[in-house]
Amino acid sequence: MFAALFPSPTLTWYLARLFVGRILGVLVLLVLVLQALQLLSESGDILAVPGNGQAEILRYVQLNVPALIARFLPYSVLLATLFTFWPLNQNSEVIAMRAGGLSAHQVLAPLLLTAAAISAISFAFNETVVAKSTGTLKLWTELRYYPIPKETGTRSNVYLRDGNDIIAARTVSGSGERTVMRDVTYYRRDAGGMVIQQLRSPQATYAAPGWKLQAPTGFTVAATATQKLGDTVISPNLTPAQVAITKTDADGENIVTLGRKIDALRAAGRRTDELDGKWWHKISGPLSALLMPLLGSVAAFGLARSGQLLIRAVVGMALGFAYFVVDNAALAMGNFGSYPPLIAAWAPFLLFALVGETVLVRTEE
């Protein structure tokens, strides 16, 4: 019964091989062009840091290429669908398949099976490679390409609140009582929210309780005076656990780690709608490759001699790009709380699956 959904093994292999070859060709071309453009804009900033050279340029490429592959793989599948079906239709191969008794869904089945395999590979690649490289690159970018501290779990640009007071740290590394903040600025504010004193320190460590600023420089607003201070303990109510959950980068975490951090944030009473949406999107995102053959298949059917092949290809491309627009818009609405996270992540996929199937059924004749 399952075999009846596909054409002959020879034809299935022929279509799948054409499809995979075009996906790889389009993907390599897109990644090379976009990486070259990004290098033109970022190489100056990388080399501006003392000690950075060719090794750092290559490291940037190594960290950035996986993200480009993950981002543009669905686009590559869409364009490969058009580049596969266009010549097949132009050379009347699709008409020959239909004349041989194959339905439109059977013609499309090898591409859908290939796209499903690509979606599975994409999910595994995102969770094992892309998440780690994206998190590292984002941290390195926020540090303006200065060396990343060797401690594991380093986060950048962390802001904390202790009542009315605010702590800003350029990096936070370590965990538990070994948590270390670097390049720390402490703003002491009055009940009205006005800053009355600012303390700057190169490092803050957990003092159990509170955080010990190492030889901070203090600025008092009322006296407009700056003075050097000895080690100072601040924020006795702020714990390492609170510091650990202040910032979560969904793009830089795999689905398991992100799920654990969402549970911790929820247990602490934090709002997690944005992270919930991104957690679900880690599953629905790779599946977008499965939609592309369905949306682009409009270019496969219809007579080439009718003169509408170009129009069909444009319609297929428009449907594919419309999906990405709607998907990003729905995710943004979910981040703002307008949509539930589950709806924001899955509604575009289900909607365009229905649209693609409707277009296929209406145009196969």
From TrEMBL:
Principal cellular location given in the protein's record: membrane
Bilayer-crossing regions: 12-37, 68-86, 107-125, 309-326, 338-361
Annotated membrane topology: Multi-pass membrane protein
Location within or outside the cell: Cell membrane
Pfam families: LptF_LptG
Keyword Membrane: yes
Keywords noted in UniProt: Cell membrane, Membrane, Transmembrane, Transmembrane helix
Protein name: LPS export ABC transporter permease LptG
Native source organism of the sequence: Novosphingobium aquiterrae
Gene coding for it: lptG
